[in-house]
């Protein structure tokens, strides 16, 4: 024989009042724990130092920098070394204005922390050429008017040089068809590989012409 049902009724007002009391209690407990530094009752200890001294070789010159651990390579170049050719555009790795070379590979310097590059070799637009002796890619950009406002141009040039190096090394892209054949610097290959560099002025056809000329000269 089953026991008789127990009469039970919960009212909406009672439920809301109970829930609110539980929530307030949890908030108060969290604040008390934060103020006391956790269960032990002592303030939380720092995990480590806030800054680090890092040594980089930038454009052939060794540089020793003490930077906040959160400092990006881009900000280290611009703010600490005053190499302002590398531009800050989106600061999210989407526009390519901050492109430079690290150990021969192009990277978005806004997405990389300076402290990650101890002992690395960094090359920026300032290390490529001078007004009296332009790098071939710089000269081609001038000849084909591959820039308008010029803001994205340093990243475009650094990326363009890396594109030709990648093609020469046989590194495939998403548009590479035959992976067993020699990769050519076609329009499609260049466009695909340069797609991470945005030109808001729209000088893409001139940029393509400049890169194509350098590719043909190097062939």
Automatic annotation (TrEMBL):
GO cellular component, one term: periplasmic space
All copies of domain 2Fe-2S ferredoxin-type, residue ranges: 52-128
InterPro entries referenced in this protein's UniProt entry, alphabetically: 2Fe-2S-bd (IPR002888), 2Fe-2S-bd_dom_sf (IPR036884), 2Fe-2S_ferredoxin-like_sf (IPR036010), 2Fe-2S_ferredoxin-type (IPR001041), 2Fe2S_fd_BS (IPR006058), Aldehyde_Oxdr_Iron-Sulfur (IPR052914), Beta-grasp_dom_sf (IPR012675), TAT_signal (IPR006311)
Molecular function GO terms recorded: 2 iron, 2 sulfur cluster binding; metal ion binding; oxidoreductase activity, acting on the aldehyde or oxo group of donors
Pfam families: Fer2 (PF00111), Fer2_2 (PF01799)
Keyword NAD recorded: no
Superkingdom field: Bacteria
Keywords, ordered alphabetically: 2Fe-2S, Iron, Iron-sulfur, Metal-binding, Oxidoreductase
Protein name per Swiss-Prot or TrEMBL: Periplasmic aromatic aldehyde oxidoreductase, iron-sulfur subunit YagT
Record organism: Salipiger mucosus DSM 16094
């Amino acid at each position: 024989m089953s026991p008789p049902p127990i009469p039970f009724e919960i009212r909406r007002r009672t439920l809301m009042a109970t829930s609110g009391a539980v929530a307030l209690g949890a908030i108060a407990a969290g604040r008390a724990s934060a103020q006391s530094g956790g269960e032990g009752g002592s303030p939380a200890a720092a995990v480590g130092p806030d800054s680090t001294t890092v040594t980089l070789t930038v454009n052939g010159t060794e540089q020793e920098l003490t930077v906040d651990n959160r400092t990006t390579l881009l900000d280290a170049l611009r703010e600490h070394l005053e190499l302002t050719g590398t531009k800050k555009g989106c600061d999210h790795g989407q526009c390519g204005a901050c492109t430079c070379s690290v150990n021969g590979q192009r990277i978005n310097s806004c997405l990389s922390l300076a402290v990650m590059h101890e002992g690395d070799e960094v090359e920026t637009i300032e290390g490529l050429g001078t007004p009296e002796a332009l790098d071939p890619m710089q000269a081609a950009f001038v000849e084909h008017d591959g820039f308008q406002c010029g803001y994205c141009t340093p990243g475009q040039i650094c990326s363009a040089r890396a594109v030709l190096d990648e093609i020469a090394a046989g590194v495939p892209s998403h548009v590479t068809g035959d992976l067993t054949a020699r990769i050519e610097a076609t329009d499609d290959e260049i466009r695909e590989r340069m797609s991470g560099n945005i030109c808001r002025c729209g000088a893409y056809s001139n940029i393509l012409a400049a890169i194509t000329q350098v590719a043909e000269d190097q062939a």
